[in-house]
User: Fold this.
Amino acid sequence: MSYFITTPIYYVNDVPHIGHAYTTIACDILSRFSKLKGDETFFLTGTDEHGQKVEKAALSNKKVTQDFVDEMSQNFRDLIPYLGCEIDDFIRTTEERHKISAQFLWNKLKNNDEIYLSNYEGWYSIRDEAFYLESELTETDKGFVAPSGAPVDWVKEESYFFKLSKWEDKLIEFYEKNPETILPRSRYNEVLSFIKGGLKDLSISRTTFKWGVKVPNSKHHVMYVWIDALCNYITALNYPNTSNETFKKFWPGIHVVGKDILRFHAVYWPAFLMAAGLEPPKQIFAHGWWTNEGQKISKSLGNIINPYDIIETYGLDQIRFFLFREVPFGNDGDFSKDAIALRVNADLSNNYGNLIQRISSFIIKNSDSKVSKPSNYKEIDTKLLESFDETLVHYLKNMNSFQIDKALKNIFDYLSEVNVYVDSQAPWSLKNTDNQRMKDVLYLVTLLTIKISILLYPVIPSSIDKALSIYNLSIDNLTLTNFVNFSPDSINLNIPKPLFPRIDL
Assistant:
């Protein structure tokens, strides 16, 4: 099977923060899981570099706009390896390939009679790059503000419009037939309710600024940022060449986005695609926002979380793990230093890392650094193996439905079972009473620790590479298809090093 997953392309008016890191890591986890299943996988991220907001940011920084976006885009590119993420492509909307793609899509919509020229008059937020109905706005002593808190201005200008209203019934029909297309379910209900509330034709060009993809055959218009930006997902698959192998293999794809931009991805983008004769996205997953120690994250409060700082303080895999173990994927979450320490210490240091450390050290000292497959298992052993099989079923179901936190809970509930088994079998006591039974117990725990490690790989890959090296194994040779039957005659161990030092509260 093939699997195409994307982050939204990140807006370059500022530096990356924890929200950008969260989305990118989420896609990396899902991409690695897909590869672990043996799927052919394509993971895309990139930067959105056009629009009035970027033009103003470059001006305020006293820089040529292209130089400004080059510099800002590089910040996002540099962050990717620091997050432990492996991407297949990084798209920039200022690239020539993207301009060609966006203009082709525009012409396709124009030729299909989906675009017309008229005048736009209404409330517009530069910060959100979005138009709003007055019913959506809140009146303050400084004027109207958008739901995001951004100020809005009354705009009147000539504009090209996309016939979004024409696609209202078709979008409702599509989503009612395919309810799993938008996740979590609460977001699906939100989108369907918005569409059923009535769709108006969408302004898709601007004349009040120049920094954007030029509208074909027009002197004054540039594309509205959302038709330009959304097109990136198919640009990376070599659109407009829809007959090429990459496009045919990977489209339609899966978009992971923040809940604030769900409407653009679940209403406008599918309508553009269907109007151009293309399939809508396979799935759209909208996640929540993070607070910092219970407070909304904002520049004015000075509590923006720098991904570099937090990873430097706690460790890469520790942060990756915390973000997706602590909070159900899709919900809002709170970033708390105490919560990080408690979660990492309880799960990674005590439950998982300590198990590896004490069992492998014991094997090296008392079993000549080697364990061999038992000739038969006792009933208690068989039950533990069967319990792993059940854990695997739940893990796969949860990972396939984006419930990463539940998948991790499955694993750590099972790890607790393994630790109880170790304590009950007490290999350190068997050493003096039944040496063969000791070796059988040690083999089974080692085997199950390896299997658990494979399941944890998408979330904490660098730590799992280190863990597997203790057993002279590599993730390159283990997938979810071949590790189910993984039961080697013997396993040779190397001296372990602590994987997860405890974090002091």
Q: What stands out?
A: The mean pLDDT is 94. Residues 337-366 form the longest helix (30 residues).
